[in-house]
Amino acid sequence: MRQYKAVSADDVWRMVTADLIESPEHESTTRCGDALEFLQCALVILAPRARWVLSRKPAYNPAFGLVEFIWIFNGKNDSDVLQFWNPKLSHFTGSSKYLHGAYGYRLKKGFGIDQIQRAYLALKSNPSSRQVVLQIWDPRCDLPDSLGEPVSPDIPCNISSLLEIRGGRLYWTQVMRSNDVMRGLPYNIIQFTMLHEFFASWLGCEMGDYVHISNSIHMYKDCIGEYSVTSDSEVLEKGNGGLCLDISFEETSRHLSAIYQDLVSITGLRGESDRKKTRSRLNNVFSPCSNANEHRHPLLRDMLCVIGSDAARRLGDMEFASDILTKCIDHSLRVAAMNWLKRNSTGGVM
Question: How confident is the model at residue 232 (pLDDT cuts 50, 70, 90)?
Fold first, then answer.
């Protein structure tokens, strides 16, 4: 199996992307176009908090990855909130209001059990267990039909997660059937290293290695001219501002449920012409100094700064979008969000 190992997600991403461009093992034809491909590839991130892929040009949107994580944790499958932070989502998942392959819905509800809660309780009671697996893939509704045709435009790429505690560290293995390095991988890393970090906090563990196994890791040929890899020294600075998460499962559930409801309310501001009303609502939801946020963990406040910045940009308030990013403590996250803001500084919706 091909393996790439480094401290940060950015390092791993740059290595596998460079090799795909220079010496792919295979070329394949997919519904999204021709692709360069490696089969059976493992990416090992030794410091999973360094999760931001900062070397992709044009920059990607960390706010969307964080919104996806909150959406997943809350077990949702409707697309309204995601569409606000990524209006192009339907190009990849289809036009249905409810997403067939929604990770969170499957983890929290789809199999008749809250797998996230059960996994937490199981590891809390038996830290040496080898049986804690979060299952996403469902052959009853995900396997192609008898002619090999997809049964939905939104078949889950993530298959399962395997969790083990050894030596006071929580190790996480994420299994993927398919992974696009440019458009998908940076967001997948956010989604599941965030879940990894929260699990570690609930269990009183350090974060062990995050291992990302992809059966097909690929790059679409039309991305080669559209995207590039940078080596900017500022972009490559690592670290997460020293924000070591310390939060319980119960606190997480309460905070992320409330935050999700706030995200829903923000989507209702689309088309609002009263700038004062819009600014007031953005401040109430996203400002680190608001009554709702002042007692939340700094990581949650950083997440809200970045999500709020992109929300403000989409609503045409570039002043608030820029100002709130200065309050983000995590340096690498702030750089990622600023790169995205600069890419879209005209205020257009992307």
Answer: low
Output helix, strand, coil percentages for the chain, rounded to the nearest 5: 45, 20, 40
Picking from 219, 214, 218, 220, the residue whose alpha carbon sits closest to that of residue 40 is: 214
Q: Are 234 and 335 in contact (CB under 8 A)?
A: yes
Contact yes or no for 52/302 (Cβ under 8 A): no
205 φ/ψ angles, rounded to the nearest 5 degrees: -110, 160
CATH topology of domain 2-229: Thymidylate Synthase; Chain A (3.30.572)
d(CA 35, CA 222): 8
- Closest to 176 measured CA to CA, from 211, 131, 226: 211
How far is residue 168 from each of residues 165, 187, 203, 205, 341, measured CA to CA in Å?
A: 6, 27, 9, 5, 39
Tokens of 39: 């089969």
User: For residues 19 and 64, what is the distance between their CA atoms, to the nearest angstrom?
Assistant: 27
DSSP 219-231: EEGGGTTT-EE--
Question: Which helix H or strand E contains 4, and what residues bound it?
Answer: strand 2-6
Token code pair at residue 243: 């924000």
Residue 140's nearest CA partner among 178, 111, 183 is 111
Where are the domains positioned within the chain? 2-229, 249-343
Q: Tens of pLDDT along 290-333?
A: 999 988 999 999 999 999 999 999 999 999 999 999 999 999 99
